[in-house]
Structure formats: structure tokens, C-alpha cells
Write a structure and sequence with these properties.
Helix content is 32%, strand content 18%. By secondary structure, the chain is of the alpha/beta class. It is globular and about 65 Å long. Bound molecules: phosphoenolpyruvate and manganese (II) ion (MN). The site of manganese (II) ion (MN) has 5 residues, from loops.
Length: 337
Amino acid sequence: MIVNMSDSATEQEIAHVIDRIREAGFQPHVTRGTEKTIVAAVGSGGRRHEIEALRVAPGVEDVVSIAQPFKLVSRQVKPERSVVQVGGVKIGGNGVVVIAGPCSVESREQLFSTAHAVKKAGASLLRGGAYKPRTSPYDFQGLGIEALKILREAREETGLPVVTEVMSTEDVDLICEHADMLQVGARNMQNFALLRRLAMIDKPVLLKRGPSATVKEWLLAAEYLLSGGNHKVVLCERGIKTFETETRNTMDLAAVALARELSHLPVVADPSHGTGKQSLIAAMSRAAVAVGADGLIIEVHPCPERALSDGPQSLDFAGFEKVMKGLSAPLPEVAHA
Ligand code: PEP
Ligand code: MN
């Protein structure tokens, strides 16, 4: 439930509401907006009627229930958009943030050359996989700790904050020592033990949507992070499974717009996994920005044909530069009769 405080509520009145929420067996979560303060009562097993009774407490405007199963993630609890800071880069503020890099870190040279190229073309964050979730156990699984060290060095050399995927709770501490943001891959979106562990870290999380997850399930996965204490969450749409076989996945741009409508969290789009095709990245990047995406994550490799993972959807340096330039081209004008 949500207790909306009135514009003129005093700190004392807010503190009283917080105390009463605790006494009623819920956890209080305070959102201080530019105009109003909202105090959410979340959790299970509390006494709802005691929260409803707060309608008549001083400084309270009204008490409403939260319509969605996700609470802290919802815009009802926090109407203003969240900005998530990764190193010095703000995701969800003004401007589209581009995260780029190879699917897998393959060597020092491969990552460094890519880091310099994507930085020059305008990317703000470097992404490279150290631990790879591969469909087949016979495929390249990533360089692990060696890749983490290379990523850290690339950050030192280029100044670009680095993002890398965490697949297991065992690796969380090690990855936190090397990376600025931890990616939860699509296959792990509902790995609840991992989400609970990541809720306790002081690093931002990039939460990919599961290939078969509904928007509600995706936002509930984010709720695990926020309710456990980590509010630095960025959502990522990366395509879902449909009957279409010409593209690797079907990039659900309505979900980007919907996630931004339902949640205050920033949303980025991944046209590389979303399509699986180099040739579609420019168009889908522009489309994602047009529907409101706060950022993009794009796979780039010095020589896609030699990539150890996801070559067909990776851009070379020139291709990436072209995509970046295309992002600022205006949309065609509407023809009038
Ligand atoms: C990746 O980002 O390389 C990756 C494995 O993504 P996803 O989890 O979306 O498949
Ligand atoms: Mn990939």
C-alpha cells in the first residue's frame, strides 16, 4: 500500500507514518519527489487495516493500494524516473547511453582495440563477457578471471566504465572487484538466488529480460533487487522467443515503452541479441531510441567473422561508427495531404 503525504507534510508527520508502517508489520520505503513524499508499505503478513487507518493521520493525503504485483519498481511508488550511475556515466538522465563491446573478451588486444574504437565512436560504457552462458557446453565459455583483469585494464586505459555478466553467486565478489556494472543474462533473469545476492551489493545491475519472460515477470525479477536493497537497476530488452525463425529473437519494442510506463527504472535495448543480425542493428537501434529507450547495448568485434561468440550479430568498427552516426539522423517528416 502507498501512503501519499500532502505537500505540506512535516518531517515529524512523515516519521510517524514510517513508524506506524513498521508497527503494522510492513517495511516502509520512502520516495521523496520534488513535490511530494510517498511512503510505501511493502512486504507480506502485515495488517493492512492499520495502514488504511493512516488516512486520518496528520499530513496524510490519501492511502491507496499498489495496483501491480511489483511494488518498489513501479511508478506508483516512485513517479519520477530513476537515474542509475555507472562510474561517471548516468543512465536514465538526458541522452541515450551506448554500451558497446565484444560478446566475449577473447584477448587483451581484441578488447583494447574494441574499447578504443567504441569510445571514439561515442560509446560511454564498455561491455565484454568473461563468463559466457552458452547453449552448448562445447562452445567457448569465456576466459573467466583473465578476462576480468583485461576489462579492468581497459577501463584504466580508456576511462570507460565496464560491464560484464555474472552467472553464479560464487563469482559475485570477484566480479565486483573488477567491474562497474554486473549484467544478469537473459537465462538467469529468474535465478532468484543470484538476484538475492546481487540485491546486497553496492554496484549497479543490468537486468536482461528472459527470452520467454513476460514484462510482469521481468519487473518482478527487478523487484527482488530493489526489495533486497539494491536500487541501482537498469532493465534490458534483448528479444523474446516467438515463432519467427528469420531473426534470432523478436525484439519487443512495445516492452521497452511498457516497462518505462510501468516502472521508473531506466530501460536499455539490445538490438544485437534482439535480432541476431548485423544488418538490422542500425534500424532497430533507431527504433528503440524512438520508443524511449534510455540506452543501447551493441556487440562490436574487430573481426566479426572470427569472433568466438555471436559473430553474426556483431558489428566491426566501421559498422558501429555508422550506427552511431545514424542515431542522430532525424525521422522522416509526416507527409501532409
Ligand atoms: C550477451 O549479452 O552476450 C548475452 C549472453 O546476452 P543474453 O543474456 O541476452 O542472451
Ligand atoms: Mn552475446
